[in-house]
């Protein structure tokens, strides 16, 4: 085919698409698409403390702030956590398979902490292991009149062709927009079976003296979802809580006491970086605000971790971190650059499918690009198309009180495929070992809109020729 005719035909076909996209509120720039949809620029307002989302459960010392996460390496375990505010209370969990009459008992460990003038309640963490795959379990905590009952569903057995859906939220906070985000996620027909949370939870550090009562209100706020499906936790900068001027010298103190993760099962030395397998996905959680340079514990752990990934068993490799490596917004611009220089070549070598981040209070999706050829000698510092590279998705748009980031670098860089300054949530639907579907849902008034999406073609299970055709399409 004549190349000139082919190019002309391509742009002839592209023109109607451009017009459609412009009509629907997007525009082409030097890079990809910048949405023209504009949100109110006012800061998000905190929900009043008397809001029903913060209400206390009935009964004296009733368990509250209930949440669960994966409790082992393979998905047969769960960590159930809750707080009793006034006294220790019951430290046991009663649980049973929905179709079974046999009830089991597990004991929790209990921790407390003091932060400035705040004393925590009794924080219970109960790890239950050796559950059956793909089974609905009922669990009960508390006793007598204050007993509370919840449920969860374990994932299917780890395997290459197992469909599974993850939800995605970051930088949530506890504002009216936070509530919209969580509500829209709950109402999404394709909502996840497990939440991947990319950091910045309660924003308690935004209140005077890092008011830790705001950790309690946030825990009650998310309970309606986090008590029923696991949230895979990532720590962000608002979890650091390092304030020497008020006598607080231990970083991440509230976070580490409240949100346990199965890091020891991944041979990690810290709960801030770890990994789990779930269905057909291998999920690696990294810490943007812990030391990650050469010879640090996080570096050594990841050096040993990536070679363990068996793409014949778990074809989808997902990385979670808080600060994005690629970002074209003015806020936090290039903040993740040192981590990118350190680890991007590893992500390309091991063909990470997608890196999800937060931190920037907006949404952005990258092309498959890398900048691994750059060094201080050759000066080749332009990101290039690279089908071995991950897609980088920033989803720090949960709804926190700091508001949206609307100022963007211009022109839109070539690595940026789509960006929009709106609140919202995402889903990552693994269909099988070859295909997955990502969608981002903008909070628009009283409903959610699928504003951006992308089909993922797994690089391990596709030939380079197939990938080239998929990329062209």
UniProtKB/TrEMBL annotation:
Residue ranges annotated for the Calcineurin-like phosphoesterase domain, each copy included: 165-363
Pfam name, any one: Metallophos_C
Cofactor: Zn(2+); Fe cation; Mn(2+); Cu(2+)
Chain ranges of the Purple acid phosphatase C-terminal domain: 389-446
GO molecular function: acid phosphatase activity; metal ion binding
Family: Belongs to the metallophosphoesterase superfamily. Purple acid phosphatase family.
Annotated protein name in UniProt: Purple acid phosphatase
């Amino acid at each position: 085919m004549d190349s000139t005719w082919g190019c002309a035909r391509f742009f002839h076909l592209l023109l109607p698409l451009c017009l459609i996209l412009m009509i629907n509120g997007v525009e082409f720039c030097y890079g990809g698409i910048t949405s023209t949809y504009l949100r109110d620029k006012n800061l998000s307002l905190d929900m009043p403390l008397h809001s029903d989302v913060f209400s206390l459960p009935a009964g004296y010392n009733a368990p509250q702030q209930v949440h669960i996460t994966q409790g082992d390496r393979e998905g047969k375990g769960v960590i159930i956590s809750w707080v009793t505010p006034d006294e220790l209370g019951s430290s046991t969990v009663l649980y049973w398979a929905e179709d079974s009459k046999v009830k089991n008992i597990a004991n929790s460990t209990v921790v407390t902490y003091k932060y400035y003038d705040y004393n925590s309640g009794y924080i219970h963490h109960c790890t239950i292991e050796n559950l059956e795959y793909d089974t609905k379990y009922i669990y009960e905590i508390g006793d007598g009149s204050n007993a509370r009952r919840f449920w969860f569903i374990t994932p299917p057995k780890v395997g290459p062709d197992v469909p599974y859906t993850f939800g995605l939220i970051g930088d949530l906070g506890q504002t009216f927009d936070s509530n919209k985000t969580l509500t829209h996620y709950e109402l999404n027909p394709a909502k996840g079976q497990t939440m991947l949370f990319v950091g910045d939870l309660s924003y308690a550090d935004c209140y005077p003296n890092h008011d830790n009562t705001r950790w309690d209100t946030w825990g009650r706020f998310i309970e309606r979802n986090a008590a029923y499906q696991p949230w895979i936790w990532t720590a962000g900068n608002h979890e650091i809580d390092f304030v020497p001027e008020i006598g607080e010298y231990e970083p991440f103190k509230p976070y580490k006491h409240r949100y346990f993760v199965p890091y020891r099962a991944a041979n990690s030395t810290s709960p801030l970086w770890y990994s789990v397998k779930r269905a057909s996905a291998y999920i690696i959680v990294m810490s943007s605000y812990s030391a990650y340079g050469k010879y640090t514990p996080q570096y050594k752990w990841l050096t040993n971790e990536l070679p363990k990934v068996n793409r014949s068993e778990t074809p989808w490799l997902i990385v979670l971190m808080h600060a994005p490596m690629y970002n074209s917004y003015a806020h936090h611009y290039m903040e993740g650059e040192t981590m990118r220089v350190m680890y991007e070549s590893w992500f390309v070598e091991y063909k990470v499918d997608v890196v999800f981040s937060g931190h920037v209070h907006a949404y952005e999706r990258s092309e498959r690009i890398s900048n691994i050829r750059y060094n201080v000698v050759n000066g080749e510092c332009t990101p290039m198309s690279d089908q071995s590279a991950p897609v980088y998705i920033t989803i720090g748009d949960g709804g926190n009180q700091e508001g949206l980031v609307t100022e963007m670098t211009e022109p839109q860089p070539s690595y940026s495929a789509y960006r929009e300054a709106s609140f919202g949530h995402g889903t990552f639907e693994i269909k099988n070992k070859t295909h997955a579907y990502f969608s981002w849902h903008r909070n628009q008034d009283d409903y959610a809109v699928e504003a951006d999406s992308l089909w993922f073609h797994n690089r391990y299970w596709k030939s380079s020729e197939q990938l080239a055709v998929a990329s062209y399409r």
